[in-house]
Amino acid sequence: MAPRAAGRRHPRVLLRRWGRTLVGLPPYAWLMLFFLVPFLIVLKISFSETQAAVPPFVPLVSWAEDAVLQIRLNFGNYRYLITDELYVDAYLNSLKIAGVSTLFCLLIGYPMAYAIARAPRTLRNPLLMLVVLPFWTSFLIRVYAWMGILKNEGLLNTFLLWSGLIDQPLQMLETDFAVYVGIIYSYLPFMVLPLYATLEKMDLSLLEAAADLGCRPFRAFLRVTLPLSVPGMIAGSMLVFIPAVGEFVIPDLLGGPDTLMIGKVLWSEFFDNRDWPVASAVAVAMLILLVAPIMIFQHYQNKSAEAENR
Amino acid sequence: MALPSAKPIVFSPWNDPDATPLIRIRGVSKSFGDFLAVNNVDLDIYPGEFFSLLGASGCGKTTLLRMLAGFESPTDGRIFIDGVDMTGIPPYERPVNMMFQSYALFPHMTVAQNVAFGLKQDGLSKKKIAEKAKEVLDLVQMSAFSERKPNQLSGGQRQRVALARSLAKEPKVLLLDEPLAALDKKLRGQTQLELVNIQDRVGITFVMVTHDQEEAMTMSARIGVMNAGFIEQVGTPVEIYEYPATTFVADFIGTANMFDGVVALDEQNRTVVDCAELEAQLTVGHSSGVAVGAPVTVMVRPEKMTVQREAPQDGLNSVHGVVSDIAYLGDISIYHVRLNSGRKVQVALTNLRHTSEQRLTWDDEVYLTWHPANSLVLVQ
Amino acid sequence: MKNRALALYTALGLGYAFLYLPIVLLVIYSFNASRLVTVWGGFSIKWYGELLNDEKILDAAWLSLKVAVINATISTFLGTLAAVVLVRFRRFTGRTLFTGMITAPLVMPEIITGLAMLLLFVSMELAFGWPDGRSVTTIVIAHVTFSLSFVTVVVQSRLAQMDISLEEAAMDLGARPVKVFLVITLPIIAPALLAGWLLSFTLSIDDVVISSFVTGPGSTTLPIVIFSKVRLGVSPEINALASIVVAIVSVGILVFGILMQRQEADRLRSERTAADQG
What we know:
Distance between the termini of chain B: 46 Å
Number of helices of chain B: 8
Low-confidence stretches of chain B: 1-7
Oligomer: heterotrimer
Shape of chain C: globular
Radius of gyration of chain B: 25 Å
Distance between the termini of chain C: 35 Å
Mean pLDDT of chain C: 87
Radius of gyration of chain C: 23 Å
Number of strands of chain C: 0
Helix content of chain B: 10-25%
Number of helices of chain C: 11
Largest sheet of chain C: none
């Protein structure tokens, strides 16, 4: 199709451009308005002061007398976060709990993913389905199930007492231990899925090549399989670690009053103290902590999406 | 990698009753479920030989190769390499290395690390490993790329690295699984000769699997033609082309015109076959060794026939037909001639001149003749 | 070799036990006549009866179902568009931002998303008078925002695996892009759309944290009710409710799984026969 005149585009080309915009605009606009803008608002409110009104904070920008534009930035909320040990401890403890849980998910999830990926082809989908299935039942209910198991007169204590291993019920519910169990239990499928994906698509002739070159199976696993599954390990770890840092339901239901996690602190600042600016500051600080892990996750997510595109 | 000393002028240890084979395959079968992939194979391969297993896909050639490497274990029979029974010996303890069809280069390692991988398993010193790796990379002219990752290499370069990696350990046998299948046609031609040269220099026994008969004939000292798990024939390229043992081999290697008939006369230097289809007798210049009346097939290659417009004088081995199709290939032309019975026969003629006054064209009536020595009796 | 396989399958079995034992116990104890969890007071279905008479729970369940269906439908629509943008439009301004906004919600702690959404709604109400308080609308908007990313990931992967020459062939035969998408692309990626719809349905019907932030009077979803009950301790009524959820999900997944399995087996079989013939 020859151009009719220099510098003018064929109408159909313009139409296609319009079409592309039409397709892209709805999701783009939605995410801008309901995902990006809210974070800017959180940032804004984290710099304002609390007041006993509706809404419970002082606007940042206001018209003072003489029509002078006033912007009041208040760093007090952040100073509060740093000076009050409660917050620092809560952040550190959240990182620790999320980190340790992630490690356990990896230790439990890797053999599972490996076994599924090396199972006969027809069995793989059903086996994987069995890992995912609990995820489709309610998260809340699964956490709740552990309350019945872990409490003092719960099933685990009853069993241990009956078997004679202990003679006093163990305090398990309302401890950090219960929080670990809850997080590992709830997030395990998120670790297994990406691990399975990388292990399953691995070219098995690489292992044959390693064996052919004189490498025993275990060494071949260490030198070939393990390094090649690093992307899956990172993706899975991020899928567990990042949400676990901000987890609220699990520490609230399974943890005790002294289980400090930042999600719980944010919740109580917001709902119990109605201190929206401080809650916002807590959220912003949490996001800053999570920026690096989120970027790593995005990097691997994009890489695997690109690999599929090829 | 010393060159084998005093190579005989014509390399043919298989004709020497005193030669010891490097690989002895004895009664080897392999079944997957109820599918028999390899069926009772006996085969000897000699030191320094370039041996090819040739066959269509699914004929069992790759399974046989993988049994040599140790990735599959025979359901029946034994494999000896250099006199040692390989039964139960895992791949990582066998004195063989394999070059994979997919190359199977480790994507997370550089070229140098890939090549060094096998040497590391032997616990050699770092210096030795580096020296050896450089030596094989030089051999395949890939030293300049030693720090690259496999995904930064072209297909041909990957092929060379894979070759270097499998040669680095100086195996007694190098197994090659369709080593050139992933290359484009022109590059394949070059690489075929390079591979033969390298084999000649390192003196390692090569066993190659291929489905490409031209490749097998170009590169190998001997070829084993496989079909449905059986080895149909083992021989030099000349033997399997000129003297195929079975109708399958005759048909699989090159093109063959075949006429079914029964033996009418069997003498020391002559077999006469009654061919009902041609309503004629065909004379072949060797003994068939079967009784009169036995069903046989007479095979004639297209280029062994001559074409003429007039009926031949003596009438020996002559059939009459009409040219129905012509394929002009430049160097030669293939004429499809429809016989009176309706069946088609192929004849190949070399185009000796730019133009030929006598060039045949469609619907020309022709007589095809051939000398008895240029045909073969195949016993079914 | 044998030992390694045994160890692997043992690990797998223990993993499954870990995943399923709590759920199984929950279901068993939902039939316990006694109010105490540990004491088995005989078989009874009275908690199911009580559950069915609890209007608050039934209302909340009905509301959750509505929210989940609306959310899943909108998310699937928007998520599919986003997937098309990501896979088919290789370069456009703001691509990095766009991919960022798609992947971040996958891992974003819910509590941050919840707070951010609420503050947005409050600010918008201050500025434009909309939305008027918190309601089903705000819950749906919040749910769509986090679940559309999951749909995008699922559809994107299917779209990327699709043979693009099918679309090219359709265009070559004279079909316009929109027609190509509707007649060729959509049927091929339909399973992913269904999976995405189910996924966002589940995410929505399961969500408690974000809903707690953006909910208002008269729009209490089922998880919010459950959460407030569960915070007070273990209750057999919740066990019964949990068992019903588990039953519905299991049947659904089982049917879906059997269908998928049959399709896969068919595919394998036809591939094998095709290979035999070739």
